Amino acid sequence: MTLEERVQRLEDIQEITYLLGKYFNNLDIHNWEAVAETFDIDVHTEYCDGFMVYEGREDAVGFLESCMLPEQISTHLGHCFQIDIIDATHAKAKVYLEDHLINFLGESAALLFTAGFAHNIYNIFADGLSGAGATLTVSLYVYAKEQGDFDVAFAIAAILMALTVIINLVATLVGRYYQKRRSI
Fold it and tell me: How far apart are CA 22 and CA 37, in angstroms?
């Protein structure tokens, strides 16, 4: 690989990283026009392991806009970018995602933490972005809000509560174990 090719590769990777930052930032401030600029015109997006599929920029942004209500506060973060240049016009990326969402419900608020991986394919010339990634909290939100399937949503909520209880129980037991060890 020549020096020029290596420099071009680094510039392409930096451009994709910038594009991801632009997407996350504008998603959080609900700037849908700028979010649309981060998608290729014929983007293909999937959520919840392919349960929800959107074709084209307009549908993809419309879905995001329908989920991200004006009163919702969010922080979308991408970490540990693994970007590979496939050829002169395409790249692929694996990104660790972390989302914090606060939905205000009357006088109370629901706080959702989500995490997962997105696998993205980029058209370097078109600055396109497409991806898929899902977690239990995202699935809970989709089944309750988008699908209206409350039986599945409540089952997912029960699993999340059970996991929370187990994690808290394990943390308490480990804490007690180390407290006893210190006192010996």
Answer: 9
Q: Of 120, 123, 119, which is closest to residue 41 (Cα–Cα)? A: 123
The reported pLDDT for the residue numbered 37 is 92
Please say whether the beta carbons of 63 and 45 come within 8 A. Answer: yes
Name the nearest CA neighbour of 140 among 97, 96, 98, 101.
101
Give Cα 10 distance to the centre of its chain. Answer: 24
For residue 181, give both structure tokens.
């060890």
Give residue 33's pLDDT.
Answer: 94
pLDDT at site 105: 65
Residues 129-152 have a mean pLDDT of 63
Torsion of CA 146, 150, 154, 159, to 10 degrees: -50
Residue 117, pLDDT score: 56
Neighbours of 145 (CB within 10 A): 13
Contact 137, 113 (CB under 8 A): yes
pLDDT at 107 over 60: yes
Q: Got the DSSP string for 52-99?
A: EEEESHHHHHHHHHHHS-TT-EEEEEEEEEEEEE-SSSEEEEEEEEEE
Beta sheet of 44-47, edge-to-edge order:
52-55, 44-47, 132-133
Q: pTM of the full predicted structure? A: 0.60
